[in-house]
Amino acid sequence: MSAREDMTEQEVRNFTSWKLDILDAMSCDTALDDVDKVVAFRVMQHINAKTRDANPSLHRIAAQRVFTGTPLDGV
To answer: Which of 37, 39, 45, 38 is nearest to 19 (CA)?
Structure first.
Protein backbone atom coordinates (compact mmCIF):
# COMPACT_ATOMS: atom_id res chain seq x y z
CA MET A 1 0.00 0.00 0.00
CA SER A 2 1.41 3.41 -0.94
CA ALA A 3 1.68 6.35 1.44
CA ARG A 4 -1.04 8.22 -0.44
CA GLU A 5 -3.48 5.34 -0.05
CA ASP A 6 -3.15 5.75 3.73
CA MET A 7 -3.87 9.49 3.60
CA THR A 8 -7.14 11.37 3.65
CA GLU A 9 -8.03 13.59 0.72
CA GLN A 10 -7.25 16.65 2.87
CA GLU A 11 -3.81 15.28 3.80
CA VAL A 12 -3.03 14.70 0.13
CA ARG A 13 -4.14 18.25 -0.70
CA ASN A 14 -2.00 19.67 2.11
CA PHE A 15 1.03 17.68 0.95
CA THR A 16 0.54 18.77 -2.66
CA SER A 17 0.19 22.41 -1.60
CA TRP A 18 3.31 22.17 0.59
CA LYS A 19 5.29 20.59 -2.25
CA LEU A 20 4.17 23.20 -4.78
CA ASP A 21 5.03 26.02 -2.36
CA ILE A 22 8.57 24.67 -2.03
CA LEU A 23 8.96 24.23 -5.80
CA ASP A 24 7.67 27.77 -6.37
CA ALA A 25 10.02 29.30 -3.78
CA MET A 26 12.94 27.34 -5.16
CA SER A 27 12.23 28.40 -8.75
CA CYS A 28 12.20 32.09 -7.71
CA ASP A 29 15.38 31.94 -5.61
CA THR A 30 17.99 33.99 -7.46
CA ALA A 31 20.75 32.66 -5.17
CA LEU A 32 20.39 29.18 -6.71
CA ASP A 33 22.19 28.17 -9.88
CA ASP A 34 20.24 26.29 -12.54
CA VAL A 35 21.86 22.98 -11.61
CA ASP A 36 20.84 23.52 -7.96
CA LYS A 37 17.23 24.00 -9.03
CA VAL A 38 17.29 20.89 -11.23
CA VAL A 39 18.70 18.72 -8.44
CA ALA A 40 16.27 20.16 -5.88
CA PHE A 41 13.35 19.55 -8.25
CA ARG A 42 14.45 15.92 -8.75
CA VAL A 43 14.77 15.40 -4.97
CA MET A 44 11.26 16.81 -4.52
CA GLN A 45 9.95 14.16 -6.91
CA HIS A 46 11.07 11.52 -4.40
CA ILE A 47 9.39 13.02 -1.31
CA ASN A 48 7.31 10.53 0.65
CA ALA A 49 3.89 12.11 1.14
CA LYS A 50 3.43 10.77 4.65
CA THR A 51 6.94 11.20 6.14
CA ARG A 52 8.11 14.03 3.85
CA ASP A 53 11.48 12.28 3.61
CA ALA A 54 13.36 11.87 0.35
CA ASN A 55 16.29 9.50 -0.07
CA PRO A 56 17.12 9.19 -3.77
CA SER A 57 20.66 8.14 -4.54
CA LEU A 58 23.05 10.51 -6.27
CA HIS A 59 23.10 8.14 -9.24
CA ARG A 60 19.30 8.22 -9.52
CA ILE A 61 19.25 12.02 -9.46
CA ALA A 62 22.03 12.17 -12.03
CA ALA A 63 20.17 9.73 -14.28
CA GLN A 64 16.91 11.71 -14.04
CA ARG A 65 18.17 15.26 -14.33
CA VAL A 66 17.79 17.38 -17.43
CA PHE A 67 21.16 18.36 -18.85
CA THR A 68 22.02 21.87 -17.72
CA GLY A 69 25.59 22.00 -18.98
CA THR A 70 26.95 21.64 -15.45
CA PRO A 71 28.06 18.10 -14.57
CA LEU A 72 27.35 16.60 -11.17
CA ASP A 73 30.73 15.89 -9.60
CA GLY A 74 31.53 12.26 -8.87
CA VAL A 75 28.77 10.75 -10.97
So the answer is: 45
Q: Which of 58, 54, 32 is closest to 44 using CA atoms? A: 54
Task: Quick: pLDDT tens for 24-67.
Answer: 999 999 999 988 898 888 899 999 999 999 999 888 888 876 55
Helix ranges restricted to H, 29-57: 34-44
- Spell out where 1-75 has E strands: none
Rounded Cα distance, 37 and 28, in Å: 10
Q: Is 73 left (phi over 0), alpha (psi -120 to 50) or beta?
A: beta
Question: What span, in angstroms and rounded, lies between the C-alpha atoms of 45 and 34?
Answer: 17
Model's pTM, two decimal places? 0.70
